[in-house]
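User: Hi! I have a protein structure encoded as tokens and I'd like to know what sequence might fold into it. I'm fairly new to this, so please keep things simple.
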């Protein structure tokens, strides 16, 4: 599936291939480190403001993307148009994406306060399950039976991961599943806006960051402005330096993911996600000493196996169809041969009968 996406870019322009490789590299680096960095801020420095951190991510995206758009380093639209050409329907879709986006980030950051990083990424690996269900129920899309088959090991693996979790927390588990479901919704929304509405990746992130920042900032003031908690200004400069690094990494991650979806597809992005899952499992053990039980390891293996089947379902389906078609074709050819021989014998007998007459 990755090869299909890459070959698509090679066939169009070598320059697009360079952009894709750069986006993939940035996405892998930031995708592997951003969750560990956020977890480090929450656990090591006891930073109790996950919604505030999410709001700062959006504020950083607004500042960076505004600078890029004003400097005309990038085009607002994929086709080279300016950003003023968006229809009312497109702007409404962007607003709905911003709601999904900020809700997913908020749930994810809140969940990281309660669960291990390894467990969080095992749950994230079930994103195709939600993407498949949403596209089938809401968009009416029909998928190959192999894709539905791949959901069985993914669901079983998620169940094993939950049962094998050492530090299981009901609130954290709920937040991570909610974040994963919203990731699936977001990938579908992004595909529509990037590929059908032809909105550029930078402009899309800029437009959806404005309402997302407002929503998250209000939520942080209401939910995290409690008397028993001290002001966030009490944290030292090292903490805020890490927060700034997290914000910049978040912007790069979102920009690179949008570029990958634009140049290939949302499925290619999920394929690459397998690499970040493995890397984050290793980082979780290295940095936080996360404990992986036998059930957790078995669950991770089943989830990854299901992901591989899901993402290569078309190739597997074509292979199985070709295997099943060969015996059928052979049987039809044998039947035709036997029918032909019978016709020859009938013709020969008819000719002999005519000669005898």
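Assistant: Happy to help. Inverse folding works backwards from shape to sequence: for each of the 357 positions I chose a residue that suits the local structure. Here it is:
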């Amino acid at each position: 599936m990755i090869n299909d996406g890459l070959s698509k870019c090679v066939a169009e322009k070598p320059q697009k291939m360079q952009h894709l490789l750069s986006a993939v590299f940035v996405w892998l680096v930031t995708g592997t480190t951003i969750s560990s960095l956020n977890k480090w801020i929450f656990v090591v420095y006891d930073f109790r403001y996950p919604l505030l951190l999410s709001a700062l991510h959006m504020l950083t995206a607004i500042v960076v993307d505004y600078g890029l758009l004003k400097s005309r380093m990038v085009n607002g639209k994929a086709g080279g148009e300016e950003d003023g050409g968006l229809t009312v329907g497109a702007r409404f879709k962007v607003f709905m994406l911003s709601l999904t986006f900020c809700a997913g980030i908020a749930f994810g950051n809140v969940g990281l306060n309660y669960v291990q990083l390894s467990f969080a990424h095992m749950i994230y690996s079930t994103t195709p399950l939600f993407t498949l269900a949403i596209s089938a129920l809401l968009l009416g899309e029909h998928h190959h039976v192999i894709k539905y088959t791949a959901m069985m090991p993914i669901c079983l693996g998620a169940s094993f991961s939950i049962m094998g979790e050492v530090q299981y927390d009901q609130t954290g588990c709920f937040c991570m599943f909610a974040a994963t479901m919203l990731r699936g919704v977001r990938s579908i929304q992004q595909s529509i806006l990037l590929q059908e509405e032809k909105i550029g990746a930078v402009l899309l992130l800029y437009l959806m960051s404005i309402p997302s920042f407002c929503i998250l900032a209000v939520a942080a003031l209401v939910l995290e402005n409690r008397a028993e908690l001290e002001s966030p200004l009490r944290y030292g400069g090292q903490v805020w330096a890490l927060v700034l690094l997290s914000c910049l990494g978040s912007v790069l991650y979102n920009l690179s993911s949008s570029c990958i979806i634009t140049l290939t597809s949302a499925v290619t992005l999920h394929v690459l996600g397998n690499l970040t899952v493995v890397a984050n499992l290793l980082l979780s053990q290295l940095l936080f000493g996360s404990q992986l039980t036998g059930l957790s390891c078995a669950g991770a293996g089943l989830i990854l196996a299901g992901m591989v089947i899901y993402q290569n379902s078309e190739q597997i389906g074509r292979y199985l169809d070709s295997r099943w078609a060969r015996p059928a074709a052979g049987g039809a050819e044998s039947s035709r041969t036997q029918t032909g021989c019978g016709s020859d014998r009938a013709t020969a007998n008819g000719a002999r009968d005519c000669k005898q007459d």
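A useful reference point when you look it over: Confidence is low (pLDDT under 50) at residues 1-11, 78-82, 341-357. Feel free to ask if any position seems puzzling.
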